[in-house]
């Protein structure tokens, strides 16, 4: 299949929600268990939460679409806590579509969406070795670690990575 990266819209919310639920369970169930992941999906990936991200000012929400299904999604926004920094909040590819370059293509588009940013930053779950390797291949380096990824009191340790963007 050929996927085209485009801006997400209201019509994509349900497909994105389903993709995130499937991808989160496939990725995180082995680390955190299905119940914890289901709780994360309910609170972080509700239709309203997705809509809010799509509509966020200073943000970009993209999907990889083949005309029938969405194979991946990415969301980044300027990071108010650090000047000239864009935060990559989400980049997920449907398990059946992984290793086809979809994540790389979504990231390449997101990387070009923030002309004032000098750095792209991402938090990656410490146990997610596959994602850590992916981001290293894209040019990210570890700059710090944190005990609470995703939400306060999550109990999910993470690696903070950054990539210098071309200016």
Write the SSE topology.
Layout: E1 4-7, H1 13-32, H2 34-44, H3 47-54, E2 59-65, E3 70-78, E4 85-93, H4 102-111, E5 119-125, H5 129-137, E6 141-146, E7 158-164
Parallel strand pairs: 4-5
Antiparallel strand pairs: 1-2, 2-3, 3-4, 5-7, 6-7
Helix pairs in contact: 1-2
CATH superfamily: Gcn5-related N-acetyltransferase (GNAT)
Straight-line N-to-C gap: 33 Å
Report the total helices. 5
**Parts with pLDDT < 50 across at least 5 consecutive residues:** none
**Residue-averaged pLDDT:** 92
Overview of the structural elements:
The protein has a single domain (4-164), classed as Aminopeptidase (3-Layer(aba) Sandwich), CATH 3.40.630.30. The protein is built from five helices and seven strands, in the order βαααβββαβαββ. The chain has helices spanning 13-32, 34-44, 47-54, 102-111, 129-137; strands at residues 4-7, 59-65, 70-78, 85-93, 119-125, 141-146, 158-164. The chain has a seven-stranded mixed sheet, with helices on both faces. α4 (102-111) links the parallel β4 and β5. The longest helix is centred in the N-terminal third of the chain and has 20 residues, at 13-32.
